[in-house]
């Protein structure tokens, strides 16, 4: 498969990365190589194999519906660069 | 209306569950607390924090799935839905994508024509809610993460509805069911039961679906209907003018009754789902499913049918009484004590629900237990008091919590069934109204009411109306 420049730009946008044109060129080549490596898997016949969601043979890890203490307002907000009215402040989001 | 078009509606409903804690951490999910006071490393999305699934959420999902005729998946997994928005601290929402817990369900709705229509439900999956953003802050948008990680069931219907009325019928049915099950408090205004509507139209006869718009911010049944109707008109106008419907999310504004475009969805749908490595697969065995199935309450549709077929109630009564589980239970307790379902129904609908409405309460606030009401109905049945006096007694029991017998005794309301006493009153009235009595005798039957009324008045409502009637007939034929 051949990864296109547009696909790299698209993925960069989704990841909120702003890249220089030269970086996009370099990444297109590198990411294409990575995908090519993973593509080796396509040489295997996997028709009979159920898709694997997890590699560890574990299931059903539950928690009972019991309240545990929260962090508390002060600790919850202590790393926030800016707070107002007990809230985290982020740059204005326009819907 | 644009009769050239057929309307196609699919609904996504987010049902907030009534668990005590969040879906992946032990924080309380109480509504209305101080912002960010109910958060921990898991729901704040701090690095290294690991989610652990609340078992009650699975239990509720199975319950809801069974009550809406779904197949429960023996094996399901959680996925990350990736997108950037400040209400989502991790940069992804934990949801289910492939292999949700419930698939292939359906509900029957009553159509306007009086028939039944089956609405398919594609799936129900479990997921976490996002936090809450407010945009009025002085320095930017404000983020409150109390709601982050609150457990939701997302119920996704097939595009099977063909009018706003069908959509509402489906939603009300689903709403009743989750309330019956006790998995949701059903409060639309507080966002416990949220609906997004996917609306498209197509020329009649066309097979392919038209481009759809997704309507959001619909927090009452009335607004949902309004928003869908507005959207259908908007799309039809667009097509009529030769324009095209754009796939977009539209926000409904209840004040104007109109909607506006929120954001175009070109790229928004690239969520790059993948299995969440932090959560192990969920396996639900047959025994678990059967245990939950055995615990299901009788559901509203079945109840309605039973009220009509076994108790002989009119459809209307059955619909009102079965709409809310607590009301249905009250009614059934009353019937168990008193029998006579139609009379019980009249009192529950006519008096109990009316009085509750006036005092703005729910059946849980009802000061009249089924036992107290049955006591009152018993006194009507054995002719101690008339129906009319019973309403006065009802008000008094409502106020004081005393028994019917006590109120009747204290206020001297016992019905006069002594023929001699009633006859004496009647004679007095006839003597004062000889002309009318002559007319009555002459065949003017309408005057019977006048004489009954007079006797009731003079006896302060305590005369037995049946006996008064009999006596009048006796006097006429004398």
Tell me the Rg of chain A in angstroms: 23 Å
Compute the CA-based radius of gyration of chain B.
30 Å
CATH fold field value of the domain at 5-43 in chain A: Histone, subunit A
Mean pLDDT of chain B equals 91
Strand order of the largest sheet of chain B: 3-7-8-11-1-12-13-14-15
How would the global form of chain A be characterised?
A: flat
Low-confidence segments of chain B, ≥5 residues, pLDDT <50? none
Tell me what you see in this structure.
The complex is a heterodimer of chains A (95) and B (478). With 95 residues, chain A is mainly alpha-helical. In chain A, 35% of the residues lie in helices and 8% in strands. Chain A contains 3 helices and 3 strands; from the N terminus they run H-H-E-H-E-E. In chain A, strands 2-3 form a two-stranded antiparallel ribbon. In chain A, strand 2 and strand 3 form a beta hairpin. Chain A is flat, with a radius of gyration of 23 Å. With 478 residues, chain B is α+β, with helices and mostly antiparallel strands. Chain B contains 16 helices and 17 strands. In chain B, strands 3-7-8-11-1-12-13-14-15 form a 9-stranded mixed beta sheet. The longest helix of chain B has 20 residues, at 221-240. Chain B is elongated and about 95 Å long. The N and C termini of chain B lie far apart (68 Å). Classes of the chains: A mainly alpha (95), B alpha+beta (478). The interface between A and B is large, with 38 and 55 residues. Strand 1 of chain A pairs parallel with strand 2 (53-54) of chain B, so a sheet runs across the interface.
Notable characteristics:
heterodimer; A: mainly alpha; Histone, subunit A; 3 helices; flat; B: alpha+beta; Arc Repressor Mutant, subunit A; 3 domains
Describe the structure concisely.
The complex is a heterodimer of chains A (95) and B (478). With 95 residues, chain A is mostly helical.
Note the topology.
The complex is a heterodimer of chains A (95) and B (478).
Chain A: H1 5-14, H2 21-38, E1 62-63, H3 73-77, E2 83-84, E3 87-90
Antiparallel strand pairs in A: 2-3
Chain B: E1 5-16, H1 41-44, E2 53-54, H2 55-67, E3 71-72, E4 75-76, E5 79-82, E6 92-95, E7 102-110, E8 116-128, E9 132-134, E10 141-144, E11 151-157, H3 164-181, E12 193-203, E13 213-218, H4 221-240, E14 248-253, E15 258-264, E16 274-275, E17 282-283, H5 286-295, H6 300-309, H7 315-322, H8 325-338, H9 341-358, H10 370-381, H11 387-400, H12 404-411, H13 419-432, H14 434-441, H15 447-458, H16 465-477
Parallel strand pairs in B: 13-14
Antiparallel strand pairs in B: 1-11, 1-12, 3-7, 4-17, 5-6, 5-16, 7-8, 8-11, 9-10, 12-13, 14-15
């Amino acid at each position: 498969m051949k990864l296109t420049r547009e696909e790299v730009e698209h993925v960069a946008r989704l990841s909120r990365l702003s890249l220089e044109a030269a970086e996009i060129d370099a990444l297109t080549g590198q990411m294409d190589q990575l995908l090519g490596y993973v593509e080796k898997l396509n040489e295997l016949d996997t028709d009979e194999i159920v898709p694997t969601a997890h590699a560890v043979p574990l299931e059903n890890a539950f928690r009972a519906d019991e309240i545990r203490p929260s962090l508390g307002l002060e600790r919850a907000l202590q790393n926030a660069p800016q707070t107002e009215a007990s809230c985290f402040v982020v740059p204005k989001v326009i819907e | 209306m644009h009769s050239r078009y057929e309307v196609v509606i699919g609904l996504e409903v987010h049902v907030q569950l009534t668990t005590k804690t969040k879906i992946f951490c032990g924080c309380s999910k109480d509504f209305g607390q101080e912002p960010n006071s109910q958060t921990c490393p898991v729901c704040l999305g701090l690095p290294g924090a690991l989610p652990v699934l609340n078992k009650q959420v699975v239990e509720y999902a199975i319950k809801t799935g069974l009550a809406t005729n779904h197949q429960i998946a023996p094996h399901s997994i959680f996925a990350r839905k990736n997108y950037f928005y400040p209400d989502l601290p991790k940069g992804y929402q934990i949801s289910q994508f492939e292999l949700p817990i419930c698939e292939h369900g359906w509900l029957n709705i009553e159509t306007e024509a009086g028939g039944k229509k089956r609405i398919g439900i594609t799936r129900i999956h479990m997921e976490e809610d996002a936090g809450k953003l407010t945009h009025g802050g002085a320095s930017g948008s404000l983020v409150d993460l109390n709601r982050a990680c609150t457990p939701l069931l997302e119920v996704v219907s097939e595009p099977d509805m063909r009018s706003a009325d069908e959509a509402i019928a489906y939603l009300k049915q689903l709403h009743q069911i989750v309330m019956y099950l006790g998995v949701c408090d059903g409060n639309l205004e507080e966002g416990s039961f949220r609906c997004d509507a996917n609306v498209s139209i197509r020329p009649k006869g066309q097979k392919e679906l038209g481009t759809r718009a997704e309507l959001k911010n619909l927090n009452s049944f009335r607004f949902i209907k309004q928003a869908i109707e507005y959207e259908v008109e908007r799309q039809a106008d667009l097509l009529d003018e030769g324009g095209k419907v754009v796939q977009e999310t539209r926000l409904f504004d209840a004040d104007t009754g109109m909607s506006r475009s929120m954001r175009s969805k070109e790229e928004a749908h690239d969520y790059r789902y993948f299995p969440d490595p932090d959560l192990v697969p969920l396996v639900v065995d047959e025994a678990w499913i059967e245990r939950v199935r055995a615990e299901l309450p009788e559901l509203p549709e079945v109840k309605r049918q039973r009220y009509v077929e076994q108790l002989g109630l009119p459809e209307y009564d059955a619909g009102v009484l079965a709409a809310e589980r607590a009301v249905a239970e009250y009614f059934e307790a009353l019937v168990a004590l008193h029998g006579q379902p139609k009379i019980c129904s009249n009192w529950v609908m006519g008096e109990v629900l009316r009085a509750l409405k006036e005092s703005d309460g729910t059946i849980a606030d009802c000061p009249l237990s089924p036992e107290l009401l049955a006591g009152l109905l018993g006194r009507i049945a054995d002719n101690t008091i008339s129906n009319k006096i019973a309403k006065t007694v009802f008000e008094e029991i409502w106020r004081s919590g005393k028994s019917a017998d006590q109120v009747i005794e204290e206020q001297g309301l016992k019905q006069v069934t002594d023929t001699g006493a009633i006859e004496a009153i009647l004679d007095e009235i006839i003597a004062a109204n000889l002309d009318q009595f002559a007319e009555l005798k002459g065949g003017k039957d309408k005057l019977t009411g006048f004489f009954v009324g007079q006797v009731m008045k003079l006896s302060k409502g305590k005369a037995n109306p049946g006996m008064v009637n009999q006596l009048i007939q006796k006097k006429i034929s004398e």
